Amino acid sequence: MYNIFFRATYLSLYLGFTCVYLLPEISAEKNTLKFVQAIWRHGDRAPKYKPYPADKYDESFWPRGWSQLTNKGMQEMKELGAYFREHYTKEFISPVFKRDEVYLKSSNADRALVSAQAFLNGLFPPTEDQEFFEPGLNWQPIPVHASASEESDPLLKPTSFRCPAYKRLKTKAAEGVEAELSSKYIEFFEYLKPIVQAKGPKVRLREVTKLIDIEREILHNLSQPDWVFKNWPQYSNKTTLDIVLELRHIERTAEFNETSLFFLTSGLLLGDWLDRIEAISRGELVKPKKMMLYSSHDGTIQGLLYALQTAEGYKIPYASCLIMELHEKQGYFFVELYYRTPTTTNTLGYNMEQLVIKGCVKSCPLDKFMLLLRANALFKTENLYQLLFLAL
């Protein structure tokens, strides 16, 4: 019902005409680039809390406290900024920060704000061409624009936004996922019952998936009990931690993989991106002139990938980044999407994948791009509030 209601509201924007598109592959060049929009998940962080009650690693083991960015997270984000510097400052943006060219907006979460600062240190390190405000300091202050509180930020923290309609849909989806997984992994859940100290007669899925933060502890060289590495022959011989990570991915994906879910969580951000590139194609002046950046969270990117019809169950690791490039060649506009993720090793490497939206090609003509995605987008915050009111 919700699916029909929400999609019907925006399908009317373009139904009533048909177009036939021939979609040749266009090779983008640096000198065809007109605008860049990018959003990343914050870098590596401390857990939000202890993953299970008897865990010996309390907040004292995390120097900056629960949920705060770690040194590894700061390094990841600085490396991402350095990639943008290498890739975009030679022929597109100035190597020195110019506020009319680049704008960075962050959610109001500490980990996102600090990630933004570390990114900017990689993108715009002080140069000899600038006046140093403190000689010898390899850092300069650059504006990071914070959004509203997490509970009132539908753009960059939609999973925390107070949306009754989304909460109902999410709860319904979660109930279905929990019923399926608790039945499939009944032995596994029973084994973990004393470890997670289940609050009810049955172990809840969320009690199990909270254990994912054990992975954070391992990456920070904190030793673990044997049960974490126990192999389960009935589950393809995976370890306890492997299964927990798999269950959490399924649980998280279920929050966005239906039309109404990603429409409510990411329609506004998609509309923001589409509105901007369409304005540029019409020759309108936009601010900033060249690059719009967002420091955000895994749920924000997960929902956006689904709204862009490219999701395919992607995982969203720390410091992963989704990039949209608008190109123009001989008056012809086209869009390219890239998804950059860190390597799984401790080295600061990365993988880069060019994404293709369903129904188009890698270098997707802008008019086709808009036609395919407009129904998934909201173009004003007021439209979101109107839908929420009607759905009550």
Automatic annotation (TrEMBL):
Task: Describe the reaction catalysed, as an equation.
Answer: a phosphate monoester + H2O = an alcohol + phosphate
Domain of life, source organism: Eukaryota
Please list the GO terms describing molecular function.
acid phosphatase activity
Q: Which Gene3D superfamilies match?
A: Phosphoglycerate mutase-like (3.40.50.1240)
Q: Which PROSITE patterns does the UniProt record give?
A: HIS_ACID_PHOSPHAT_1 (PS00616)
Family, similarity comment: Belongs to the histidine acid phosphatase family.
Q: What is this protein called?
A: Acid phosphatase
